[in-house]
């Protein structure tokens, strides 16, 4: 279709918007569900596509799926997925609360294909979002897709995640020399096994360590150098007391906290999610290094407390200049490939920033129910998922809050819902 009109459009078919889709079906009734569309730029649904390695697991309990904390009896639970594919008894026998990443990814795809009323359309990338003005003011959004088609909606939910962070030093390198963790699994075969390679892994958290483990295992001729700013690899902070701060109910306390209290919470909780490794991966990686030393073949090198100052292509190699913060000295190292475990940009995603500019919003913020604060007179609404850490805590980017957040957004939508008017375009008339 060149033009579509829906009441609710969700951008991105990841965990956030799939949880929203299920909540719409279970809480809002078939009328709104049938007028809800989820668009996904890829041709399928996959979770953490770039790091879907066979042995990687989730760091949260399988009970924190799309629905269970909101509705334990839902047909869309992870347990029901396991039952439907005949693997429930095997998973129980595994004796673990942590599911494999590939299994969670398959669960999300199963949910997307099991929705009764909400539609999911694949291969549709959002290009721009602009307010659509009518006689009653900006009561809708006009979303232009990359193929030139347009979707008009009254309610918009953006859940595509943050933009990838590429450190400035590596931004100018050719694509074939740099692989970010978000595309590692689909590009790792580009590395090749035909000759000894020098591989640099930049970063000191879970994704960087997983890439290091994978290339050390898959490329026996490769020398792997891990470059990090920290003093060394550290385990996640994962005590049961700390984990209580990931309860959906804690969002209320965080949102109501004083600014200085929020800053302390974010600072002290950083290692619960961003700058650590699972104890199992730490143990496994240390044993790999130990066994290499035992065999006299040390293929893993750790460069700690190093800042990347520069990276230039030189004769087919990448020359990386590092500052050693212990000594103040500069060194240059040459690599064949750079693997970036550098995560995501802290700023709001580009698509949200562009929307805010078009709506006349200088300072992007959301209310307690994740609805963007728009200028007076807006009949259209926009909710943001997964990018509200400053107001809702670190949990906003994690699976832990999916089910309850979706319930809150749907409740807010229902409270502000009204029937969109007929919109007349130059070449068509669209009705709900």
Report on the structure:
The chain is of the alpha/beta class and 432 residues long. It folds into two domains: 3-163 and 345-420, FAD/NAD(P)-binding domain (3-Layer(bba) Sandwich), CATH 3.50.50.60; 168-236 and 273-340, FAD/NAD(P)-binding domain (3-Layer(bba) Sandwich). The protein is 30% helix and 22% strand. It has 14 helices and 17 strands. The strands form four sheets. Strands 1, 2, 3, 4, 5, 6 and 15 form a seven-stranded mixed sheet that branches. A hairpin with a 5-residue loop joins strand 12 (317-324) and strand 13. The longest helix has 17 residues, at 279-295. The two termini are 15 Å apart.
Task: Enter the CATH topology name of the largest domain.
Answer: FAD/NAD(P)-binding domain
Compute the average pLDDT.
92
Low-confidence stretches: 421-432
Total number of helices: 14
| Oligomerization category of the chains in this entry | single chain
Strand content: 15-25%
What's the total number of strands? 17
End-to-end separation in angstroms reads 15 Å
**Integer-rounded radius of gyration:** 23 Å
Largest sheet: 7 strands, mixed
CATH architectural category of the largest domain:
3-Layer(bba) Sandwich
**Which CATH class of the largest domain?**
Alpha Beta
Fraction of residues in helix: 25-40%
The geometry reads as globular
Look at the helices and sheets and give the structural class: alpha/beta
Q: What is the number of domains?
A: 2
């Amino acid at each position: 279709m060149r033009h579509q009109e829906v009441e609710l459009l969700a951008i991105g078919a990841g965990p956030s918007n799939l949880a929203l889709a299920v909540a719409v079906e279970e809480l809002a009734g078939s009328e709104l569900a049938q007028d809800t569309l989820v668009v996904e730029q890829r041709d399928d649904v996959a979770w953490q596509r770039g790091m879907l390695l066979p042995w990687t697991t989730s760091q949260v309990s399988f009970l924190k799926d799309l629905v269970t904390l909101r509705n334990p009896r839902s047909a869309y639970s992870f347990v029901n997925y396991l039952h439907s594919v005949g693997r429930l008894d095997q998973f129980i026998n595994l004796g673990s609360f942590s599911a494999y990443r590939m299994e969670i990814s398959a669960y999300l795809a199963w949910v997307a294909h099991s929705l009764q009323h909400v539609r999911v359309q694949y291969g549709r990338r959002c290009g721009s979002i602009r307010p659509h003005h009518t006689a009653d003011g900006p009561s809708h959004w006009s979303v232009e897709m990359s193929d030139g088609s347009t979707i008009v909606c009254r309610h918009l939910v953006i859940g595509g995640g943050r933009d990838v962070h590429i450190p400035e030093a590596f931004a100018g390198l050719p694509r074939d020399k740099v692989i970010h963790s978000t595309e590692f699994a689909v590009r790792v075969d580009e590395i090749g096994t035909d000759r000894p390679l020098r591989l640099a892994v930049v970063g000191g958290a879970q994704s960087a360590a997983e890439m290091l483990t994978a290339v050390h295992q898959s490329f026996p001729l490769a020398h792997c150098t891990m470059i990090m700013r920290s003093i060394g690899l550290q385990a996640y902070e994962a005590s049961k007391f700390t984990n209580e701060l990931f309860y959906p109910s804690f969002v209320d306390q965080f949102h109501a906290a004083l600014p200085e209290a929020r800053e302390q919470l974010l600072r002290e909780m950083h290692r619960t999610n961003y700058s650590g490794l699972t104890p199992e991966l730490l143990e496994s990686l240390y044993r790999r290094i130990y066994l290499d030393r035992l065999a006299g073949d040390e293929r893993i090198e750790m460069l700690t407390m190093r800042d990347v100052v520069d990276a230039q292509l030189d004769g087919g190699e990448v020359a990386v200049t590092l500052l050693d913060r212990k000594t103040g000295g500069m060194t240059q190292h040459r690599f064949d490939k750079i693997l970036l475990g550098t995560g995501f940009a802290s700023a709001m995603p580009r698509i949200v920033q562009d929307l805010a500019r078009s709506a006349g919003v200088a300072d992007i913020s959301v209310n307690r129910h994740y609805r963007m604060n728009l200028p007076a007179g807006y009949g259209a609404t926009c909710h943001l998922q997964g990018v509200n850490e400053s107001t809702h805590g670190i949990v906003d980017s994690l699976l832990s809050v999916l089910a309850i957040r979706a319930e809150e957004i749907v409740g807010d939508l229902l409270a502000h819902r009204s029937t969109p008017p007929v919109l007349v375009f130059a070449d068509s008339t669209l009705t709900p």
